[in-house]
């Protein structure tokens, strides 16, 4: 399929995402019954009926838009872990997180979104981030920039002298080695905080409201859409090993970071490496 997608597909996917969110997600926001919220791997890993129904609908819509494509979705992979391997296959892959920020969604907060990305042989081609409760829709297309509600996004550099605002993996999702690495961010000139929805943290970098993210988990559905959004807005991303994070790998060095500019990324990675020893 080459390395480009056209604007017509970008618009068609946005329409599909909006329709699915309107049908399956928004009507359940702040109206979830207790039996509609399920723990997958403990109290910090939740799924709702909205996640499951939205992913089913998105899978149908996206594969219809691009015949021959496949879907790697968070809920489908939970049911069949082997399906994650499609990311390394030859078919174009839609990477779907139907409700990113499920904890926020369950609590009735507005910090949740639907994430869709299109990749081919590990290369990210398109990105869609929809936060319906905030009326934000961000898109990116490889080589054509990033937009939020139609406005061109530029990540940019932090204000001179200001502390770097960094969203960091929640401690619930880090092992002991990663915790040591992340401690390096608690230093002068850096203002770390626990992250919320990964997709919305990436959007904040693309809009210049956040300088960087640092994540200790690498499942593609959390990161694919946001990473293309950031890089098309002029930002950068790499792992602690100095290599780009790849959506088609299950062996990315962790943690990894995305930032609005190269200087910020280098500082963040240096602090992580120093603390990890």
TrEMBL record:
Its EC number is 3.1.3.25. GO terms for biological process: inositol metabolic process; phosphatidylinositol phosphate biosynthetic process; signal transduction. GO terms for molecular function: inositol monophosphate 1-phosphatase activity; metal ion binding. SUPFAM superfamilies: Carbohydrate phosphatase. Transmembrane segments: none annotated. Mg(2+) binds at residues 74, 97, 100, 222. Its cofactor is Mg(2+). It comes from the Bacteria. This is inositol-phosphate phosphatase.
């Amino acid at each position: 399929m080459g390395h480009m997608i056209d604007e017509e597909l970008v618009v068609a996917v946005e329409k599909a995402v909006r329709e699915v969110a309107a049908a399956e997600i928004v009507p359940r926001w702040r109206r979830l019954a207790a039996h509609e919220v399920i723990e997958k791997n403990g109290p910090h890993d939740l799924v709702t009926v909205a996640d499951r129904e939205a992913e089913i609908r998105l899978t149908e819509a996206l594969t219809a838009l691009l015949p021959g494509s496949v879907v790697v979705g968070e809920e489908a992979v939970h049911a069949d872990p082997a399906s994650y391997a499609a990311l390394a296959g030859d078919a174009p892959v839609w990477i779907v997180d139907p409700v990113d920020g499920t904890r926020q969604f369950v609590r009735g907060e507005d910090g949740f979104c639907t994430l869709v990305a299109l990749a081919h042989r590990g290369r990210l081609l398109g990105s869609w981030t929809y936060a319906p409760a905030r009326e934000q829709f961000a898109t990116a297309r490889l080589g054509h920039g990033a937009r939020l509600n139609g406005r061109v996004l530029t990540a940019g550099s932090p204000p001179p002298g200001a502390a770097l605002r960094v969203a960091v993996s929640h401690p619930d999702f880090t092992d002991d080695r990663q915790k040591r690495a992340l401690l390096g961010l608690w230093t002068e000139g850096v203002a770390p905080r626990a992250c919320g929805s990964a997709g919305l943290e990436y959007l904040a970098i693309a809009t210049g409201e956040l300088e960087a993210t640092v994540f200790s988990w690498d499942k593609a559905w959390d990161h694919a859409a946001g990473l293309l959004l950031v890089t098309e807005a002029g930002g950068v991303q790499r792992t602690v090993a100095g290599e780009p994070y790849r959506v088609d790998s299950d062996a990315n060095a962790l943690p990894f970071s995305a930032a609005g500019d190269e200087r910020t990324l280098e500082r963040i990675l240096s602090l992580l490496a120093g603390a990890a020893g």
